[in-house]
Amino acid sequence: MKIGIIGGGMSGLIAARDLQAAGHTVEIIEKSRSVGGRMATRRINDGQADHGAVYFTVRSDELKEEVKEWQTAGVVQEWFVADPYPRYVGLNGMNKIGKYLAEGLDVRLNEKVETITAKEGSIVLTASEQLHYDVVILTAPIPQASELLGGSSLNLTQADQKLKEYIFEPALVGLVELNENIQVGEYGLLDQDLPDGILKIVNNEDKGISKNPILSIYMTGEWSEEWFDREDKALEEVVRLTIEQLGDLSIASKQLKRWRYAQAKQVFKAPYYKLEQHPVWLCGDAFLEPDDPSGHTRVESAYISGKRLAEHIIRFAQS
Ligand SMILES: Cc1cc2nc3c(=O)[nH]c(=O)nc-3n(C[C@H](O)[C@H](O)[C@H](O)COP(=O)(O)OP(=O)(O)OC[C@H]3O[C@@H](n4cnc5c(N)ncnc54)[C@H](O)[C@@H]3O)c2cc1C
User: Fold this and answer.
1) Atom in ligand 1 nearest the alpha carbon of residue 12
2) Sign of the alpha-carbon dihedral angle for 82, 55, 91, 42
3) How far apart are CA 62 and CA 295, in angstroms?
4) Nearest CA owner, ligand 1 atom 1
5) Over residues 71-77, mean pLDDT
6) What is the pLDDT of residues 253-283, one digit of tens each?
7) Average pLDDT over residues 178-204
8) How far is the CA of 100 from the centre of ligand 1 (A)?
């Protein structure tokens, strides 16, 4: 089958890889200039900073096995162990994991899918040109996916329309480059007893991914919601709260990253969803197996979702 996958984050990359390995022709269409999605890393002068997923944990045997291979390939390393799971990070930033997974896959970067149509037995995506597939997988965060579906001419049933009810919270992340390094927690991470509004502070140099000390300051969902549309003031406030916690800082540069859809507020209790009247499936971090041991969206839930959907489509193609 010819399969189009909208989105080159963890779930889309894993689905693509497994479907291609099973003999299908797969193409990923990604609106950004790089793969990785919310596993994101930004270059800042000579250094770099993760500004999406900070690290990932592993509860499933499948991801455990995979991580061993990623470690051998020099893509992932253990950061530290806590309660009781190791925290894994991309060796040179989280988005290197995405880049590694995309090797050997057909990816169309900088192409946003604007509409989805059903036409003469195929599903047509409108991006820079019309792309025809037998099956389409949509991996954007559910609110973005519903928006895309809502603006398309597919027949959506009442069950399909219910996807609109899934809400994600935003995240604001301050990226503050320092002139000199500063101790942030034992491993370069502070995630407790922080001023109201700050969720985590990470020092990317101590995390081992940057030549320069760059702080990634992750704000809570509630704070980010309140400050989302006040970009300049929000950055000043992030810096003020950080100084309140860490003391005076010698700042070389600062910027703010805004994620409109960072984490799902409520999750879908199945690893994927199929539109009732079309060969279009949704998957991603908010689609959890019913017995998911953590219950929240994360890199591992995106991985498992992509994997389960690929297994399902491989069976579907054989039936
Ligand atoms: C600030 C922040 C901190 C986080 N911290 C952690 C953490 O510490 N640990 C952890 O495990 N998880 C964390 N997460 C969550 C983790 O990053 C996600 O669960 C995971 O990366 C999601 O993968 P995904 O494939 O489901 O979606 P995504 O990574 O969002 O991939 C979807 C892709 O679809 C693309 N796309 C969307 N619409 C279109 C379109 N119309 N056309 C083409 N492409 C499109 C997007 O550009 C994106 O690349 C964090 C997330 C954020 C934002």
Assistant:
1) 25
2) negative
3) 18
4) 52
5) 97
6) 999 999 999 999 999 999 999 999 999 999 9
7) 96
8) 16
